[in-house]
Amino acid sequence: MDCNELVELVTAYLDGSLDLDTRARFDMHLLKCDGCENYLDQFRSTIRTIGNISDDELDPVYRNRLLDAFRNWR
Amino acid sequence: MAETADETALITALREGDDVVFARLVDEHTPSLLRVARGYVSSREIAEEVVQETWIALVKGIAKFEGRSSLRTWLFTVMINIAKTRGIRERRDADAAIAAYTGGTVDPARFREAGDQWPGHWKDSEAPSAFPDTPEGSVLGAEFIAIARAELDKLPERQRVVVTLRDMLGFDSGEVCALLDISVANQRVLLHRGRAAVRQALEDYLADA
User: Fold this and answer.
1) What is the C-alpha end-to-end distance of chain B, expressed in Å?
2) Which residues of A touch B30 (CB under 8 A)?
3) What domain range is B188 assigned to?
4) What is the CATH number of the domain that holds A17?
5) Domains: count for chain B
6) Measured on CA atoms in the order B68, B69, B74, B77, is the torsion positive or negative?
7) Are both B104 and B129 inside the same structural domain?
8) Out of B35, B122, B145, closest to residue A49 by CB
9) B121–A33 CB contact, under 8 Å
């Protein structure tokens, strides 16, 4: 497996959806390639960072509209 | 995603017209519902209408809500169905377009060419370096989050929706495929491309810093 192939398989690797033969070649490549090991770490760090994005504040006017809709329905 | 024990109490409270519970659910889920709805419709205003209809559908249907799916999954399923009917974008060929795309997610110039001793391997000057640690609350951590958010907003809509559902909101692969009615393979392609674009933005940011 070459580096340019490995980088396209990272999500499948992290999802555990590679067939075992491909997974083994992925793991063997990582053992001898610092660049790809760093790439995988960067990918994990990216996913963690996206997980830390917090949602926008809710516009209070819109929020009240939703709460009013509830009061009117019950 | 299974919060069913908690949710039974919430649903009972909603049936009894408890508006404190309703407000809590609105605060918890509305921002992410809006974020995902924006991937289907042409304006923020229409997204707000879609999400409002979703909450009304919950209130109208709460007496019959059976708790087979989690409340959150139910909300997203209903929201996406409403959003699709309001969507103006042509989506019919989307799956074919995903399959047809074969480009890589990393600039091919970073790899050695055919004829090199190690074709397809990183060029020495282009090999990725480890990202520095970004502990929660650190300055770099906050900058990383800001960069990731900006890049997420720039992604093509289907990538953005998949990355948002999977990585920001924590839905699993099966749930995302069911919500968006796409195959596991296409879900993975969209997720991978979106993540790779955010990774590149973070790497660029560090290179410029």
Assistant:
1) 38
2) 58, 63, 66
3) 94-208
4) 1.10.10
5) 2
6) negative
7) yes
8) B145
9) yes
